Amino acid sequence: MRVPPRVSQPAQPALSDAPTGSDDQPGPAEERPVTDAADRLKQHASELVDYAGYYLSAKWDGVTTSLRRQVWRSAIGVLTAVVGAGFLIAATVTLLGGVADGLGILFGNRPWLGRIAAGATVLCGAAIALHLGAWRARARRHEAIVSKYEARKQRQRKRYGCDVEKHRSEAVEP
Fold first, then answer.
1. Count of C-beta atoms within a 10 Å radius of residue 119
2. Do the Cβ atoms of 1 and 50 come closer than 8 Å?
3. Surface-to-core class of residue 116, CB atoms within 10 Å of its CB (0-12 exposed, 13-18 middle, 19+ buried)
4. Lowest-confidence range among 18-22, 134-138, 166-170?
């Protein structure tokens, strides 16, 4: 945004058009170009500050718009997950209720026994699945650690001609 020249002063000529001391301009000839340059510098600085503020404001608006969009997407994702989980829970309850009723009929028309058997079967299945999952995770982590150190020892053998295992066995033997 350009700052208009002051009303009380006439429009100022460019530096090359500056008077060289004629009678219509008050003051020494050298003072006028300096004040012109200072005024232009102030004007350019003011423009720069205004443009920088415009740029920063636009960037800030972009960041807040992006953040709002991400919040809405997250909210929709959470809502979808909750609804999906609700459907899965309802389906599971319905299925297990049917299995429990069927087992109750098989156990001589004892629905309570069918519910106990169905619940115990599901809980045991879940415990076994969790145990196997934890065991597999530990085994994978162990394999990754062993592979990491085997690769390091192989690099040591390639680089130095021996590895940490050889140095350890030499240090133990007298």
1. 13
2. yes
3. middle
4. 18-22
